[in-house]
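I'd like us to work through together how a protein chain folds, taking it slowly. We need material for that, and I hope you will provide a protein of your own picking. Go ahead whenever you are ready, and we will take it from there:
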Amino acid sequence: MTGLFLRLFTGPFYRRHTGFFAGCFIAFFGAVQPHTLGLYHRALMQTFLSSPALLALLLLAWSVYGLRVFGCCRGLLLGAEGRFLFETRALGGTRQVLPFAVAVGAIYLPLLVYAALMAAFAVLSGKGGSAVVIAVYVLLLYAGTVAGLLAGINRADRPGWGAFRPRRVRKAVPFRHWLLQYTWKELRFSFVLLKAFSLLLLYIPLVWNGDRYDHDSIVLFLVVLVAAHSFLAFRFVGFLEGPLSCYRNLPVGRGRLLLFFYVTYLVLLLPEGLYLYGVGRHLIAWPDLVAIWLVPVHTLLFLTAVQYGGAPEKTEYMKVLAGLSFVSIFFFNGEWYGRWMLGLGALGAFLFFVGQPTFEKGKEE
């Protein structure tokens, strides 16, 4: 039974996330020389243990991994190849625990090992409280995943659960919520990682190096933050002009569609705006603070307009993004955040109004 669960859950999970684990391996073991590997990981652990905020950010990243594990296993369980496992309810909850615990434990193994090493390092560094927090949190995350899968199987035959859950009539999603709904349903895992990475980029220059802050220290982090969010504009246009191309039958003018994109980007970048206000209001002038927050918003709007204007392919899109990032560095070094933001927004609106009807006509042909 345990071997069956390993083949059904553990193997497919690692195959689906080969790229993710390869990237983690490169970041943790391939980024430094072998003889400095110990010092590198020691410095990483010291960094996360030096601040409760950084430790909380690390635990949040681990939580995202746990949610991904649960979602993947649940999808396999409810898929055609895993439905027969609902028959294991006849074995009783106690005999079900071991196969699930081993299969999920094999998926959690890299996280459990690293958490154990970090907890041991925290104890040796005299931070026993942090060690307890790390150990308890990871074990609860692991146990919660196993318990959630067990509950999903054993409650499936009760009213309101699993395959016997009565079908609900879903309310129609307003047009203004389509992209937000798409982000939550399809891009949730990537979006949460993006927000964690984005807030970390702001944390480094504004908090970690806050006592030595100058405007040059935020330039590179802002460019990387904008580039990291660029995939949203590409995915949104592909989604709206692909599966939801029916929106063209709605009475939606270009002005409303442009506002639709703009408000969506404002909402998705609201965490960065609140964080900038919370930690940067004493370091950066208020007009520059607002401009820095709006730079990614207007950049995404411009990248959206560029796709409607003739760069819908990924290769062309990446070329535009690379050129935009290069030019923006000169404006950021001159502290011309407002000029860059306003110019990019105006140019993006113009390109959108000119290119969007042509894009629609090309699609229809």
